[in-house]
Amino acid sequence: MKNRMNTKFLVTTAVFIAIALVLRSFSILIAAGGILTMRISFSAIFYVMPGLLFGPLYGGIAGGLVDILGYMIAPMGAYIPLLTITNIIAGFLPAVLWKRIKNTDERKIANSYNVFFIILFSIGFINFAVTQFMPQSALAKSLTSLGPKSKYLSLGFMIIGAIAIMLFFINILIKKNSGKAQDFVNSNYFKLVISLGLSGILVSTANTFILMIFTPALMSKGFVFLWAPRIAQALVMTIISSYIICILLYSYELFEGRITKKA
C-alpha cells in the first residue's frame, strides 16, 4: 500500500513538473548584465503543489527539477547553481509553513494577514509622503536615488496592500452565501498567502544577493534597486497564486473523494 502511494505521489509530482515547465516557457523575462534577474510566471504554482499535497520533500524535488530542466530546455545567461538551491527552498519552504499553520484558527490567520498588508500599505504611504513633501530628508534622498524604481517602495506597496485588504473584505461579503468550494477557499486562502508570502520574500531576498554577487554591474546599483521590484512582484504573485492554489487543492480533494459535492 505504501509503495502504491509513493508511486502515485511521484507520478502526480511528475505531472506538476511537466505543467510547470510548459508555463515557464511563457514567462516574462527581465535580464540585466546578461543574467536573468526576474521571471514573471505562474510556473511556481505547480512546483509548490506537490509539497502542499504530499510533503515538503516533494516540493523541494519539484522546485529543483523545474529549475534544472527549465535551464536545459531554454538556457538564459550563465547557469548559477545557487539559484537552483533557492528554487528547491521555494518548493520546500511553503509546504513546511503550510503544514504548521493549516490547522490554525482562521481568525488568527486573517488577523495576521490584515496586520501585514496594513503595515505594507503604511510603509508605502510614508515613503510616498516623504518623497512628495519632505524631499530634502535622508529617507527621501535614499528613495529618489533609486530613480523610477522607488515607486515600487511607495505606490507599489500601497497598491499591493490595498488589493490585499480589498480581497479580504470581498471574502467576507461572499462568505455568507457560498458553497463548499468557496468555503474551502475562504478557510485556506489567508493561510496560503502567509505560507507563500513568507517563502517568497525570503527566496527573493536570497536570490537578490546571489544575483548581485554574480553580476558586478548590478553591485553598483545597490541592493534595494534590484530587491524592491522583485519583492513587489513576489507579493503580487502570492496574492494571485494563493487563489489558484486553493482551487487546485479543492479540485484534488474532490477528485480523491475527501470532499463531496452538494446535492
From TrEMBL:
<keyword id="KW-0472">Membrane</keyword>
<feature type="transmembrane region" description="Helical">
    <location>
        <begin position="231"/>
        <end position="252"/>
    </location>
</feature>
<feature type="transmembrane region" description="Helical">
    <location>
        <begin position="194"/>
        <end position="219"/>
    </location>
</feature>
<dbReference type="Pfam" id="PF07155">
    <property type="entry name" value="ECF-ribofla_trS"/>
</dbReference>
<feature type="transmembrane region" description="Helical">
    <location>
        <begin position="110"/>
        <end position="133"/>
    </location>
</feature>
<feature type="transmembrane region" description="Helical">
    <location>
        <begin position="44"/>
        <end position="66"/>
    </location>
</feature>
<dbReference type="InterPro" id="IPR009825">
    <property type="entry name" value="ECF_substrate-spec-like"/>
</dbReference>
<feature type="transmembrane region" description="Helical">
    <location>
        <begin position="78"/>
        <end position="98"/>
    </location>
</feature>
<keyword id="KW-0812">Transmembrane</keyword>
<feature type="transmembrane region" description="Helical">
    <location>
        <begin position="153"/>
        <end position="174"/>
    </location>
</feature>
<feature type="transmembrane region" description="Helical">
    <location>
        <begin position="12"/>
        <end position="32"/>
    </location>
</feature>
<protein>
    <submittedName>
        <fullName>Folate family ECF transporter S component</fullName>
    </submittedName>
</protein>
<keyword id="KW-1133">Transmembrane helix</keyword>
<dbReference type="InterPro" id="IPR030949">
    <property type="entry name" value="ECF_S_folate_fam"/>
</dbReference>
